[in-house]
Amino acid sequence: MKTTDRKLAERTLANKKEQQSQIDRSKSKMTLAELCDRYVKTVLHQGAKTVDQKKRVVRRIKDDWPGGSKIQVGKVRPSDADMWLARYHFGAASRSFHIQVLKDVFNLALRDKAISDSPTAHLKYVKREKPIRRTPTFEQFQQIVGSIRSQKLNGHDADESADFVEFIGLAGLGQAEASALTWDDIDFEREQIITFRHKTKSGFAIPLYPQLLPLLARRHAQRQLGIDRVFKIDNAKKAISSACNRLKLPAFSHRSFRRMFITRAIEKGIDVKVIAEWQGHRDGGKLILDTYSHLNRAHSQLMAALMTEGEPANIVSIYGTDAARKEKAVVRRAKSFRSRVPLLKRLIRPFTAKLALPKLWRFFEAAHVLRLIILKANH
Predict the structure, then answer these.
(1) Quick check: helix, strand or coil at residue 203?
(2) Are 192 and 210 spatial neighbours (Cβ–Cβ below 8 Å)?
(3) Rounded to an integer, what distance in angstroms lies between the CA atom of residue 296 and that of residue 272?
(4) Residues contacting 170, CB < 8 A, separation 6+
(5) What's the pTM?
(6) Is the fold of 6-111 the same as that of 138-304?
(7) Which fold has domain 138-304?
(8) How far apart are the first and last CA of the chain?
(9) What are 62-102's pLDDT values in tens digits?
(10) What is the CATH number assigned to the segment(s) 6-111?
(11) Where are the domains of the chain?
């Protein structure tokens, strides 16, 4: 029981016996292969890519499990899970995904009361590294857009690819959101764009930024009747890659321009919570702070310049001047004291009458007057 406390050991033993009594013995004889097949049926409602990835992990469990996949679920040991994972050499993300699927498989057996404890409960996820991804400057972004626009023979209209890339960089949206955008999603009167974040399956609205308005106004004036999509293409990967090669720049992608948008917004002093709302995040800016904290040195230095002894010139105090603030504090304290005087009189009057101490109240009032004089003198 891993304890020297007899009472604790007895309680622990009783809990284990209770857990064992609840196990369905018929289900505990289910094989690991049968459990895996049962698990696959529970994830078929998920995205096609996710289902394929989980099926691949399940095949590995069935093919490479120590002792074979015909082992009964109730006989699987924690060391079996360790030995299975040790067969592969993969990165942090892939290892964590394999652990997640393995945990889900045995949690299914746990919920069905085929086992009392999961043999994967001890497995820990691997913390992923957070590399500093390359992000173009706004000048590099403009060069890439210009280079794409100058190539008239790129398989389709060069202006279409250039506008697509320019939109992503100026709107801060992803490739999926940009390709799915329709003219009905853009409200020029309210100056906002309604879009759908495919990663989180949630809709959100962003402002129609001044830097973005000329591009959309031009495309709206040139649009063809019967075409609802703002852009005809789904991506501009080849155009971006070719432009980066011509300009001798790193291999940027659609996501690079989204990072550029967020970086510029941080450096311009825009509140991180507002930026998170523009990105369709619902964490109040935590993800952006964790991901982009290394990119905002210019913004940090700008904010550090505001940390002076006095108040910056562009700050208007909600309390007004120092003198007005002190005056309000004196009046507030005096009013607070006066508001308590009637109550104090009622509370103390029976005692002063009974004890024949009429001078006590006069002393109390004198102390109050003296306190006001001192406050005024300090002011």
Answers:
(1) strand
(2) no
(3) 11
(4) 209, 211, 212, 215, 261
(5) 0.58
(6) no
(7) hpI Integrase; Chain A (1.10.443)
(8) 70
(9) 999 998 999 998 889 999 999 999 999 888 889 999 999 99
(10) 1.10.150
(11) 6-111, 138-304, 322-378
